[in-house]
Amino acid sequence: MTDTQALSVEERRQIVELQDALRRLGAAEWHDDDYEKMHTLLSAAISTPAMQRDVFGLHPLVKDLQTAHIVATEIGMTRGSVLGVLLNGLVISGQLSVEDVRRDFGNDVAVIVHGLARISELYEKNPIVESENFRQLLLSFAEDMRVILIVIASRVCIMRQIKDAEDDDARRRVATEAAYLYAPLAHKLGLYQLKSELEDLSLKYLEHDAYYHIKEKLNATKKSRDAYIERFIEPISERLTAAGLKFHMKGRTKSIHSIWQKMKKQKCAFEGVYDLFAIRIILDSPIEREKQDCWQVFSIITDMYQPNPKRMRDWLSIPKSNGYESLHITVLGPEGKWVEVQIRTERMDEIAERGLAAHWRYKGVKGGEASVEAWLQNIRSALEAGDDMQLMDQFKMDLYEDEVFVFTPRGDLFKLPQGATVLDFAYAIHTKIGNKCTGGRIGGKMVTLRHVLQSGDQVEIMTHTNQVPKQDWLAVAKTGRARSKIRQALKEMAATQAAFAKEELERKFKNRKIDVEESTLMHTMTRLGYRVVTEFYQALADGRLEINQVLDAYMQQQRYDRGEVAPAQTVSADTFQLQPDATSKTLKGSDVLVIDQNLSGIDYSLARCCHPVYGDQVFGFLTAGGGIKIHRVDCPNAPALRERYGYRIIDARWAGKGQNQYGVTLRIVGQDDLGIVNNITSIISKDEKIQLRSISIDSHDGLFSGTLTILLEDTTRLKQLIQKLEGVRGVKAVTRL
User: Fold this and answer.
1) What is the value of pTM for the model shown?
2) Selecting from 1.10.3210.10, 3.20.20.210, 3.40.50.150, 3.30.230.10, what CATH number does the domain 9-206 have?
3) Domain ranges in the chain?
4) Residue 227 in 3-state DSSP?
5) What is the dihedral of CA 426, 431, 435, 440, to 10 degrees?
6) Which of 559, 600, 598, 563 is nearest to 578 (CA)?
7) Strand-strand pairing, 437-442 and 445-447
8) Does the domain at residues 369-487 carry the CATH identifier 3.30.565.10?
9) Range among 143-147, 516-520, 615-619 with highest mean pLDDT value
10) Which tens digits make up the pLDDT trace of 194-252?
């Protein structure tokens, strides 16, 4: 065993403690010999060199035990899930097979291990979830819903331990993925505590300064916040006790990530975020009195404090699809401060803290498993349609958005994402109805299929037998199901049209009494600029290509093949369309896009928002048009790109030697002394490798500020220039824009 694989004294202590803790937690559910078999397997695994540490130096055995502890204590899952986590590492390292697990621990555990093993294989091929393996990742999730919960717990475990990791790039990749994939997954499944922790830790690793700025502000105001919460709670507690209710209350401050999002959205400082406080009232009520007691508390609080009707949320009458039940109201408390109050019962609180894992334990109480299975079925439908990049964007939207509740004329209830249209509702009812939808009727009034639905709408879908899906419907539909069904229908229609076009072409050949040779026809397609047969026939069907044009080109190609004429002229390169996989093939050979003078086959350009220079730390961003924009790592747009489109990020670095001239803008601030501008321009003009493109200086109250736009070769020369400018007497600061 190498030193890097060897377990430290602290890690060995953790292994013993975690095994004991899991044994106590699982005592009621584990089979008689589960622990002994597990302990034997883990003890043997400690000394095997097959257990390799990950990029952060974390030992898989310790990490699996920590993940199993999260699964058991913070999600509340039992035997099958805990054993699945612990055995997963042994299967991945080749010490056990899935069949061994099935024989010794049962099929229930084997199914989980198989799902986890598939996900591990995906990450071995590519450490970042991109569109290609994102589809397979969701399919693995869809096999068994417990796999989703385990993988979320695993990501929480990793995020908790990589604060001091030396590999900052790996940490940023993991944090970005946690923010755009695993946090919304946790949100959808009701794991609000873990979702909040993932978001906070992601912010900590991706936007260090913002995280610690808010954290310091919260620490500085903690004493006054706690005192305010006590003053707010005290009169409420007295009124609820007088009403004979059994309850307890929690006061909390919103998460750092939530505060940061509000600061960005409202474009304000920390002090401008008005609803920092939240109070949770948790009732001890029997199931039959839950709603009655919650509404009684709601009535008492709104009698005491002025409510904000726009901030009212009733997930008691109609729970969220993940089983979440609660009443939310924001009221104006003492000193004119807004406070959010959440009202729920002990049962509802456990579901809110542990998500669906807790919900499933309440048999007969509004079962949540069916609703999540319906959500996963939507994912399967999208996967079948082959949505690639669009699937990921739609998937994230479905997770994040709130829901609207819409009724059929018969009173059947449907839940749709906020912003859903009549067309989405039609596809939610049935694919055939969606394909034939022409509009709808709401409250006796006709509306178009683009009409955005509101909660409570009773919608009658209007259809017509001649209606067919259109390409622009993709811009109308908001749900993943509707978009996938529209794409599927468009593909089927295109295939049918292409088949008709092929028949028509064959008929024309026959009418002209031309014998069709397959090789000659394929050469003709190539000469006309088509590399894929289906695209050729689709062009005929769309009218972009005339049949007579094809016949003439075919006959010319036929004469050339016989040696009668010179080769037919190849279509100009200007009209050639690069195939979608050309870029990806160029990139798959390497994990990093290397930028140098000889880079060919890839359409890339330097981003104008941050003007990268040779030598800057950079990354590539795959644009919607297929090209790649090169951004600086510290580009002001980088956090948003990583959060929203992390799957389009490509690692990049410079190679060779800086030979181009790159534009850079510098901002200079200083004292408005006589001759200072001449001193600045003199420094630039003395360097033959630097060109001054423009200069703009403003002077006010004895100070000057201005911008310089220069051309230079690399960051080394840029740093030297900045040092020289900072050395000019009177210059206070030089910053790169």
Assistant:
1) 0.55
2) 1.10.3210.10
3) 9-206, 209-359, 369-487, 512-575, 581-654, 662-736
4) helix
5) -10
6) 600
7) antiparallel
8) no
9) 615-619
10) 889 999 999 999 898 999 999 998 888 888 888 888 888 899 999 999 999 999 998 87
